[in-house]
Amino acid sequence: MNLQHFLPYSLLFLLLSSCEAKQEVSIPPSLIEQSYSFVVASDLHYLSPSLADPNSSYFHQVINNADGKMTDYCDPITDAFLAEVIKKKPDALILTGDLTWNGAKASHEDLMNKLKAVEEAGINVFVIPGNHDLGAYQPARFSGDTAYVVEAANADWFREQYQDFGLDQAQSFADDSYSYLVRPREDLYLLFLDANSPGGRYVSQKTMSWLRSTLSSLPQNARLLTFTHQNLLVHNARFTGSTMVANADQVLEALDAFPGKEVNFAGHLHIQNIATSSSLDEIDTSSLSVYPCLYGTTSITSEGLSYQAQETNVATYAKDRGLTDKNLLSFATYGRAFFDDYSSRSFDRLWGETDFGIDSKTAKETFLPLHYAYFSGNPLDLAPYQDNVNQMIAHAGNEKAAYLESIVTDLQKHPAGHLTYSAL
Ligand SMILES: [Fe+2]
Question: Would you say the pTM of this structure is higher than 0.90?
């Protein structure tokens, strides 16, 4: 569908909605009683199979030394995930950015074909780009022991190509970013905010103006959910400068002025984590391509909102499809081992030379389950690890220990983990 078809309607909506400012919307009882549901996932980092020769030694070298993404299995993981979405048949599927591994056009095109099948099953698909989707990083095709540069998407290409996955249903949208507002039913608005401005991770001033005027035009009793790629709240005190929306303060201030805001959904950090603040809560869904390949199922009722993270069942998908790859058929074992291997490399890189006051093997065995719990949002009883952790933090005694301490603090603060959220 061509974007131009929507321009007159959007302009009309803006004119009409400005007249509606501060009014309350009258919500039919039938809508209030109906729940609205969506599945949210993030950071798929999908890589087209056409770009990754499975026999490429260089490809496996890159993947095995990266950040825990199972890129060599991203195609079956994505297929298994989307099959679960179609089976659940929510009202919408929402993807909060980093759709692709470094923004190759070929990866975007293959993913869009899969998303078309979701829409054909009667499920609306809404996306926003992430920092890896618009050509900020160099996409490649891997063959043998070499990587070849391939064509990257940019913001204009993304806007044109992905318009069937959000922009086509927008009641209002920004001119200079993939930011838009949809109204899936009378009492509910979904606002997607693209913070991938050229050269940085910030919401442009033009999009900020659009955001403020859009919010001021909404009925004050409407409910509003927002979606960003980078986070608006601090999830780990060690990671703020390079991960958050740079002008998150401005965005939060604009959202604060709207009483109906409920939750922001984000990704980017690749950890399953829920942060709360006095004005807004934020659910950060971890990367679909990092084990345990989580996505969130969200239900909105008249009573409130509930969110449940769950694992993609790749092994069952592989078995049902008659796939023979042993790693897929025993995916829980393979995935956890792959993650622990990534954690082990992280440990060696950060603390390989550190004297913890305990032997390094024990220190690493202490770190691995903590790291997995932190990334997967699972609860962890710290008691068996506490003595070793205390030793490690005390002996490391430097900037590096602060990262370990931040993980421990989070696990202590959230004994039930970060898999569920409810605002009732
Ligand atoms: Fe990502």
Answer: yes
